[in-house]
Design a protein that fits this description.
Layout lengths: L9 E5 L3 H14 L7 E6 L10 E4 L1 H9 L2 H7 L6 E3 L1 E6 L5 E6 L13 E5 H14 L3 E5 L3 E6 L4 E5 L4 E4 L1 E4 L6 H7 L6 E13 L12 E6 L2 E7 L6 E9 L2 H7 L7 H19 L5 H8 L5 E7 L11 E3 L2 H4 L7 H18 L5 H28 L6 H17 L1 H8 L18 H5 L3 H5 L3 H15 L1 H21 L3 H8 L5 H9 L11 H10 L7 H9 L15 H10 L10 E4 L2 H8 L16 E6 L24 E5 L3 H10 L18 E2 L5
Parallel strand pairs: 1-2, 1-12, 2-8, 5-14, 12-18, 21-22
Antiparallel strand pairs: 3-7, 4-7, 5-6, 9-10, 10-11, 13-16, 13-17, 14-15, 15-16, 19-20, 20-21
Helix pairs in contact: 1-4, 1-10, 2-10, 3-4, 10-11, 11-16, 16-17
Family: Belongs to the paxM FAD-dependent monooxygenase family.
Keywords: FAD, Flavoprotein, Monooxygenase, Oxidoreductase
Pfam family, one: FAD_binding_3
């Protein structure tokens, strides 16, 4: 008879940052009722609590989770150093000084989300508050001066080795040691180092009374320019200090020249400080906001903090070791990094307690399936936002300002929903029937599923819906169907396969049978208009000039029998021959192919389409120059960007109006530059936020 599985008793957490201490506090709260002799040790590589980093933003969800861990009360007891309340982050144009919009942490009545607003607090103050709570927790101990150099797993334990010759042994090891995690790079996923994003923070703390100009914001601001953005926010309750952080593009080669390091002599450090001040002045010297102008002209000690990321898709765990927070999924910060670390800690601790009679591998699986999709979406959104901080040309910078209001409005509902999130209340999956993993389900036969009881099948499917979401659950079911059909297909002889590959009817007749109509002009089927309108809808009703521009938008369809089956070069010749008005006489036209037509018709924006979206709806953009003869590539030309451009590329329909059309109409760049990262002809160009 097998012995029952016991929950972990000795837990080692690597890293005493926000994620590490939050994890210790959350596990103590969730697991202590079931494990009376629970011991949690947190190992920190620094000899004392690190004072590096500036002020961080605590969103409503971050404050909620800190309150649940007992940390928020401790912050409040710190007085002015406990941070400044933030009702909103106001956005301004550094070029004109005008307001662009705001990210509000309160509703129209001034109430926070779920009782909590925002807060800007120095990272060291938050660390001290968390450390104080941890020291009061009876089964949590924090040990400093422990730098990880490696580790090893055994059947019943995991061992972490430190530089000083000691080691930590635990039933469970949790890596919370940040973006440059040693647990990740020396233990869990050795081939996954952090990547530099190309962007950096230049930050400083400035005394409010040193400024002669009145700050233009109430509590916090983000000031936009084409050379990056600058955050300016009070970081103490008495508003005596302003935390300023410029978010700028910085080459990897320049990092070593501008980094202040221990051991540098005074002359070197002074030279670096002067260079950083000059960098700030060069970027923002034309700022139209008086107090920001004063900040960049001041003699503040600016510090450079490169921004690194750990892209999605890597390994998060072994059998007894798991990564949480930035160690697993560091992303470009968007003022919510603390919230994600707290989410991780609370969700993992709840699953650990709920699955206390299950192997740790199942605990890890349940956590990953509940968390990974959310993190992937957040990473994509963070990367999209950070791309706006790269250096831009004058026209692109203006477009960035104009579109910011619409982006804020479009994402408002998603932001507010995220701030209502409570990791203590989210439904957790019930442990699946023994032996039933995600991979086994995908490859299961009907007989395997029928062998489960009704209750077991319900638990299995409900758990997948909770961990993956309804949409992903449907995709799992579709994948099961696909694999089953592939098995059936492989058993067929070649003759039936060949017959099934033959078209059954002309394409227009297929459309008529699918939509039960008589229209043969595919541009009037409503599918194209629906795709375009879905992209335009969020921008309607705010600015009259924008509404007028939308109403003037027109697509001119050219549908002639002689164009059936022609190539891109022929389409380019016809485009060059046509007498077009100024609005249509751009550097490229759009071409509909059978594949692009199918992609648009398959897009589920109308209820008449009965299947899920399997790809991005696209059309083919054809350059005017596609009709010109292409010269053969010479020796070495393969390495020249755009040398192999064929004169056309696939473009996502949803990116045409907002992103692609300005590039074509204003000739902002050559089309071949958009294909530099294409791997093959089937790639589709789309905007960075897709």
């Amino acid at each position: 008879m097998m012995e029952p599985i016991r929950p972990p008793q000795n837990i080692a957490i690597i890293g005493a940052g926000i994620a590490g201490i939050a994890c210790a506090l959350a596990i103590s709260r969730e697991l202590s009722p079931f494990v009376p002799d629970l011991k949690i040790k947190v190992y920190e590589r620094h000899d004392v609590l690190s004072t590096s980093g500036g002020a961080i933003n605590l969103t409503p969800v971050a404050q909620r989770h800190l309150a649940q861990l007992g940390v928020l009360n401790e912050l409040d007891r710190m007085g002015p150093e406990g941070g400044a309340d933030v009702d909103a982050i106001e956005l301004f144009s550094m070029r004109s000084g005008r307001g662009i919009g705001s990210i509000n942490f309160t509703d129209n009545q001034g109430r926070g989300f779920g009782g909590y607003k925002g807060r800007r607090v120095m990272r060291i103050a938050l660390s001290v508050a968390m450390l104080t709570v941890a020291e009061r927790t009876r089964n949590v101990e924090i040990v400093f001066g422990k730098k990880v150099i490696g580790g090893e797993e055994f059947a019943d334990r995991a061992v972490v080795r430190f530089q000083d010759g000691t080691e930590a042994v635990g039933d469970l090891v949790i890596g919370c040691d940040g973006v440059h995690s040693a647990v990740r790079t020396k233990f869990v996923d050795v081939n996954r180092p952090a990547e530099y994003t190309g962007l950096s923070f230049l930050q400083a703390t400035i005394d409010t009374d040193s400024l002669s100009s009145l700050p233009h914001f109430r509590t916090s601001s983000l000031n936009i320019s084409r050379h990056g953005s600058m955050l300016a926010s009070y970081c103490d309750r008495d508003r005596e200090q302003i935390f300023a952080a410029a978010i700028v593009q910085f080459s990897r080669e320049a990092l070593s020249l501008y980094r202040l390091e221990p051991g540098q002599d005074w002359a070197t450090q002074n030279k670096i400080r002067c260079a950083l001040r000059e960098e700030i002045r060069d970027r923002f010297r034309k700022c139209a906001i008086p107090c920001i102008k004063e900040m960049i002209e001041s003699k503040a000690d600016w510090m450079l903090y490169p921004v690194y990321q750990v892209p999605p898709g890597g390994r998060w765990c072994l059998n007894r070791v798991i990564l949480l927070g930035d160690a697993a999924h560091a992303m470009p910060p968007r003022d919510e990094s603390a919230a994600y670390a707290l989410d991780d800690a609370i969700l993992f601790s709840r699953i650990l307690a709920s699955y206390r009679s299950e192997p740790l591998t199942e605990v890890f699986d349940a956590y990953e399936t509940l968390r990974r999709e959310t993190i992937n979406r957040a990473f994509k959104e963070s990367r999209r936002m950070w791309e706006r901080n790269r250096d831009m040309g004058l026209l692109e910078g203006r477009l960035k300002e104009w579109m910011m209001t619409f982006h804020l409005k479009t994402n408002e509902h998603a932001r507010e929903a995220a701030w209502e999130f409570d990791a203590t209340k989210i439904a957790l999956p019930t442990p699946a029937p023994k032996g039933w993993t995600h991979d086994r389900l995908l490859n299961a036969s009907g007989e395997d599923l029928m062998a489960l009881s009704d209750t077991q099948r319900t638990i299995l499917f409900d758990g997948l819906k909770i961990t993956h979401g309804e949409d992903s659950f449907r995709q799992i079911m579709q994948e099961m169907d696909r694999r089953y059909l592939a098995q059936v297909e492989s058993s067929k002889s070649e003759e039936p396969k060949q017959q099934e590959r033959e078209p059954l009817a002309p394409f227009v007749d297929t459309l008529n049978s699918l939509f039960q109509g008589t229209e043969t002009d595919w541009g009037k089927w409503g599918r194209w208009d629906a795709v375009i309108e879905e992209g335009l809808a969020p921008y309607r009703g705010f600015i009259s000039k924008v509404d007028r521009a939308i109403n003037l938008l027109e697509f001119q369809w050219v549908e002639q029998p002689e164009l059936e089956g022609v190539d891109a070069a022929h389409v380019a010749r016809r485009f060059n021959e046509k007498a077009l008005s100024r609005g249509f006489a751009t550097s490229a036209c759009l071409m509909v192919t059978p594949d692009s037509l199918e992609s648009v018709l398959s897009w589920p924006c109308l209820s008449s389409v009965r299947h899920e979206r399997q790809g991005i709806p696209f059309v083919v953009s054809v350059s005017r120059r596609a009709s010109a003869p292409r010269l053969p590539l010479g020796l070495g030309d393969e390495d020249v960007a755009g040398a192999g451009f064929k004169g056309y590329l696939n473009v996502a329909v949803e990116s045409i109006v907002e992103e692609f059309n300005p590039i074509v109409a204003l000739q902002m760049m050559n089309l071949h530059t958009l294909t530099v990262k294409f791997r093959h002809d089937n790639d589709i160009w789309c905007s960075s936020d897709r």
